[in-house]
Write a structure and sequence with these properties.
Layout lengths: L1 H7 L4 E7 H4 L17 H11 L4 H9 L3 H10 L3 H20 L4 E8 L3 E5 L1 H11 L1
Parallel strand pairs: 1-2
Antiparallel strand pairs: 2-3
Helix pairs in contact: 3-4, 3-6
Length: about 130
């Protein structure tokens, strides 16, 4: 709904900043991130970890993880946090671009209460750089 409202209001730029537990769902194209609508957090982490070469044991641990912070700890143990987050951020950007449909530029910044800032999409980087000038 937020992105639809931004388009209706004529926004030209939108920056989503949120907890990884919410925004990771965007990587699967799930735009309603409320837990009663959909979850899929572990599945997103697992799929992107597999794309980045994670072993089956790591994927199984990700699927069993109760929180996104636990997923990040598992990825740290497998030395895969960087590549997996890059893959997830690219997927988030792709889905945001599709949803915006060219009406505005949109990016996302992810953080964790336990792990701090985690990264931003390519458009988020561009927007933040533009806003600093």
């Amino acid at each position: 709904d937020t992105l639809d409202m931004a388009a209706t209001a004529g926004f030209e730029q939108v920056l989503l900043v949120g907890h990884v537990g919410k925004l990771v769902k965007l990587a699967a194209g799930v735009m309603n991130t409320h837990s009663h609508t959909a979850d899929g957090r572990a599945e997103v982490f697992c799929a992107h970890a597999a794309l980045c070469g994670a072993r089956r044991k790591v994927c199984a641990a990700l699927m069993d993880a109760a929180t996104t912070d636990a997923c990040l700890d598992i990825l740290d143990g497998a030395q895969l946090r960087g590549p997996v987050l890059e893959s997830i951020l690219a997927a988030i950007q792709m889905h945001l671009d599709r949803r915006a449909g060219g009406a505005f530029r949109v990016g996302a910044v992810l953080f964790s209460n336990q792990h701090g800032p985690l990264g931003e999409t390519c458009i988020a980087k561009e927007l933040m750089k533009e806003w600093q000038n």
